[in-house]
Fold this protein.
Amino acid sequence: DAVAVTYAPGLVGALVVGLAFAKGAAWGADKPLIAVNHLEGHLYANRIAEPGMQPPMVVSLVSGGHTMLVHVRDWGDYETMGSTIDDAVGEAFDKVAKALGLGYPGGPIISKLAAKGNPKAIAFPRALMHSGDLRFSLSGLKTAVTTYIQKEQQAGRELNMPDIAASFEAAVVDVQVAKAKRALEMTGARTLCVGGGMGTALVLKM
């Protein structure tokens, strides 16, 4: 009946590709084009996977450009309970991967390395873990990882890449899980969903 496409907000490069394809498909099929909020698209992906699911629920949206917890009171009725005050989860993964001399995107590479490492090897910070609210901060963690890497290199020690990846990933996930649990307690919702490009890594660790 129509072609729907998520257009914003988010990382422009990726969204432009989808938008261009959707416009071409709509024009070629002579169908109307429907613009959808990109974050709402991530949220509704859960409904595609589980058609019977019903609000209320809490959704953890973790992607390259966004990190937030959303209370879905009903379809179309949302409240952002907390979001990042600086870097998003995906952005932090990309920057750590770059610091380690790995490729892009960082998420899959870091997660693959982390599976071989010890998540307790390095005590990276869990920013805002006990802040009492649902805000996130990834900038300090990213800096802590890059500083650790620099110190190890300056000392002439070989980097234990799996341990660095595992310890970094654990620091990210620990805060995400703790805040998600808090959001469920605050709302009384009994369903937690995860959406966004970084969602797979978070779900596997939960």
About this structure: The chain has a mean pLDDT of 90.
